[in-house]
Specification:
The chain has 481 residues and is an all-alpha fold. α16 packs parallel to α18. The chain is elongated. The two termini are 33 Å apart.
Length: 481
């Protein structure tokens, strides 16, 4: 049955042992062996001349080919099996890379090199080496038809886990859809559906129109249902609930409840749960439920997907919205301001480090968080400095095509102008700008929320810095989930 990963892992280990390919079954020994093997393999690849890597022969040893095919499946189960079996993922990757170097190319050679780049990023934090191995894997796949059968998985690993750290997301849709098509042609329907799912995520991250995102998401759900890919279908449904709520289809803006699903009845897998956590965090941020967004529990199974380095494509958007929720709470809850600021600063530093490592996809996130941080530090920053930081964040998001993030930046600027600077005239200007951007994006659910929260600003009233909506939030009623 799908998702019985531990049973599958046990079966693969037994078969591989019979073929003379043994793996440690105890985690403590396994983890140590995995770390040693990873460092050794990375060193081997770095020391191998590029000319030799590009002219490797095709593997013909039938026993090795069978072992490689089984290890590929074992690695997949180890990843989805969570932290307990993570060492097996590393060992399968390093063994397949070493097999390629020793015996030649086989069906999973390119994916094993891309996987090596991914593990280098997660375990060693080496962005340059990860990018180098990913590009080597792409070149391998391009030059040898034998490797085309693994293109769907290759696309997922390279674009979802590695290259989003160093290349702009706007160029990723084509290779993900090519991976989907390749997977359908070669019978790899599981990885093919992952390519579809990540393309939907990509559409959201890059600020494409919500109607297009919903259409693509619904079409992907239909196909995953037809192919009985239950986990992918569940993840897509969770995301669809967010997209529809943004468009104004439901009043349950931060709860997965309704005819389609009830979050209290969902049986989560590790990946569907991290999807759920992400969606709840984004919804909490965009609909002003900041306390909920700041306190959502990150379970053990979520952590491997949400790593700042090596995590999936949406890890950075999760941390951005979580950090924003914490800065917002620090602004409204003065009793706990230091606590929220400390947590927000840690996340802000991680995203800033990612930017320093030349990640082009977090520039506008860091820009807005710079403004949020400065707005809470009046001793260090003058009001004009804070205004400039917010305007920079708005312009940066708009120039990058991130219409939803530009709208959010304008909304947060308006909140600063109203609540801290006391400039209701400019607050109204930026609030109307945010509403117009959200309207263009067809996020009418957010537009309605903004009209309710900032009715004093929109009406031109300046009797105080907070609306009735804020009073409810500060008293804690709005934080109930």
């Amino acid at each position: 049955a799908e998702m019985r990963f531990e049973d599958a892992i046990g079966l693969f280990l037994t078969i591989l042992a019979d073929l003379g390919c043994r793996f440690p079954r105890y985690r403590i020994v396994g983890r140590l062996e995995a770390l040693v093997s990873l460092r050794r393999t990375v060193s081997m690849v770095k020391q191998t001349p590029v000319e030799m890597l590009e002219s490797l022969p095709v593997m013909t040893n039938s026993s090795k080919l069978v072992s490689a095919a089984l290890m590929s499946r074992l690695g997949l189960c180890a990843w989805f099996g969570g932290k307990r079996s993570f060492y097996l993922l590393i060992l399968t990757i390093t063994k397949m890379v070493q097999m390629t170097l020793s015996f030649g190319l086989f069906e999973f050679s390119a994916t094993s090199f891309s996987d090596l780049g991914w593990m280098t990023l997660i375990m060693m934090g080496d962005v340059d080496a990860a990018q180098s191995f990913a590009e080597l894997a792409l070149k391998m796949e391009e030059n040898n038809k034998l490797l085309w059968t693994g293109k769907a998985k290759l696309s997922v690993v390279i674009y979802v886990h590695i290259l989003h750290h160093v290349k702009t997301l706007h160029s990723f849709s084509k290779p993900l859809l090519e991976g989907y098509q390749s997977g359908m042609r070669t019978g790899d329907k599981s990885m093919s559906m992952w390519c579809l799912l990540w393309n939907v995520v990509l559409l959201y991250r890059t600020g494409k129109p919500l109607k297009l995102i919903v259409e693509q998401c619904q079409a992907s759900i239909t196909q995953t249902d037809e192919l009985k890919q239950k986990e992918r279908a569940l993840c897509l449904r969770i995301m669809l609930k967010l997209y529809l709520d943004l468009m104004g289809s439901s009043n349950n803006t931060v709860e997965l409840s309704g005819k389609a699903m009830n979050e209290k009845e969902i049986v989560f897998t590790p990946f569907s749960h991290v999807t759920f956590t992400l969606v709840k965090t984004i919804a909490s941020s965009l609909f002003g439920r900041y306390e909920l967004g700041a306190h959502l529990a990150i379970e053990k199974g979520d952590q491997q997907y949400l790593k700042m380095k090596g995590g999936v494509m949406w890890a950075q958007i999760f941390w951005f919205h979580r950090c924003l929720c914490m800065f917002a709470m620090a602004r409204t809850n003065k009793a706990k301001e230091r606590k929220y600021m400390a947590q927000a600063k840690r996340i802000h530093k991680e995203l800033t480090n990612s930017l320093k490592n030349k990640n082009p996809n977090v520039l506008h996130y860091v820009s807005l968080l710079n403004a949020e941080k400065a707005a809470l530090n009046q001793k260090k920053y003058q009001e004009d400095d804070v205004r400039k930081l917010y305007n920079d964040a708005i312009n940066m998001s708009a120039r990058g095509g991130y219409v939803h993030d530009a709208a959010l930046a304008q909304e947060r600027f308006a909140d600063f102008l109203r609540g801290i600077a006391g400039d209701f005239k400019e607050a109204k200007y930026h609030l109307e700008g945010a509403i117009q951007r959200y309207t263009d994006w067809v996020a009418m659910g957010v537009v309605e929320y903004l009209h309710n929260k900032y009715q004093d600003v929109l009406a031109g009233s300046s009797t105080n810095g907070y609306s009735k909506y804020d009073e409810i939030q500060i008293c804690g009623v709005g934080a109930q989930s």
